[in-house]
Amino acid sequence: MEDRVYVGNAGKDATMDRGWLLGHFREHGDPRHSHAVEVKWGVHPRGDQRAQWVEGEVRTALLVLISGRFRMEFPGRSVLLEELGDYVVWGQGVDHSWVAEDDSVVLTLRWPSVPGYAVPQETERTSF
Fold first, then answer.
1. Domain 2-115 falls in which CATH fold?
2. Structure confidence at residue 42 (pLDDT)
3. Cα radius of gyration rounded to whole Å, the chain
């Protein structure tokens, strides 16, 4: 049974894979491997932003604010999450980006889990 159970800490485990805890990118046999969903524990310092917009999105996503102030950008719309539990959902075909207005922690769920959206690690985070 232990092979199918994983116990961890989101804050510690998130430092290993740019915040991603669960998804297609985990090794087969790891209980965190999934093609159905991806889960990210995002810890973002103030001023952190996505280096480039996600375009041609084929997934649906839910982002929940745990702490801080976090802004999601969509074409023609900006959404500020500032109270514990504020969240935003966007669907397939919705381009997006983000910026942490204060030190922030967010939980993101995306489905399905598909490759092809990672920003190269050396350019993923930028500051104002």
1. Jelly Rolls (2.60.120)
2. 96
3. 15
Side chain identity at 97, as an amino acid letter? S
Q: Tokens 């994983």, residue?
A: 6
CB atoms within 10 A of CB 30: 13
- Token reading at 24: 């297609």
Q: Which of 17-31, 44-58, 60-74, 107-121 is predicted with the least confidence, judged by mean pLDDT?
A: 107-121
pTM equals 0.85
- How many residues appear in the chain? 128
Report residue 33 as tokens.
Answer: 């491997």
What is the Cα–Cα distance from 4 to 8, expressed in whole angstroms? 13
Give the single-character DSSP code of 55. -
Question: 61: closest CA among 26, 32, 37?
Answer: 37
Residue-level pLDDT at 126: 42
